[in-house]
Design goal:
Distance between the termini: 21 Å
Radius of gyration: 14 Å
Strand content: 15-25%
Number of helices: 3
Helix content: 25-40%
Largest sheet: 5 strands, antiparallel
Strand order of the largest sheet: 4-3-2-1-5
Number of strands: 5
C-alpha cells in the first residue's frame, strides 16, 4: 500500500517548511496521517516530512509502553510484511482533533498511543 498520497505528502512537507521557517521552531502541528500495523501494536502519527525526502517525523508507538517523538523511513514502512502477509496501513478515516503534543501527553499517561 502506498502510505502517503500526494495530498498527504504536501501537507507533511508544508509543516516541515513552516517549522524550519519559524523563528521559535514551531512544531506543535496536528498530525496529518496515522499509520499502523494491522496485526501488531505499532502506530505512527506523522506531522511532517522533508521535501522530497523519505524520513517522516511524529509520534511513534512501537507497542512497548513508551511512545515517543521520533523519525521513520516511509520506504521501510512500505516494505514491511507481517507474518500474515499484510503490510503497514494508513488509517483512511483518521482526522486529528488536537495538536501532536496532546496526543503525546495522553500516550505517556496510558503507555500507548490511542488515536
Amino acid at each position: 500500500m502506498k502510505l502517503l498520497t500526494k495530498e498527504i505528502r504536501m501537507k507533511l512537507e508544508r509543516n516541515f517548511k513552516a517549522r524550519v521557517a519559524s523563528a521559535n521552531g514551531e512544531d506543535d502541528f496536528h498530525p496529518v496521517v496515522k499509520l499502523f500495523n494491522p496485526v501488531g501494536a505499532a502506530t505512527w502519527l506523522l506531522t511532517e516530512i522533508e521535501p522530497n525526502g523519505d524520513i517522516a517525523h511524529g509520534l511513534c508507538d512501537m507497542g512497548m509502553g513508551c511512545p515517543e517523538f521520533g523519525s521513520v523511513s516511509i520506504t521501510e514502512l512500505e516494505n514491511i510484511v507481517t507474518p500474515f502477509g499484510l503490510g503497514i496501513e494508513r488509517d483512511r478515516f483518521f482526522t486529528a482533533d488536537k495538536p501532536i503534543s496532546e496526543y503525546y501527553k495522553a500516550a505517556r499517561v496510558k503507555g500507548y498511543l490511542e488515536a
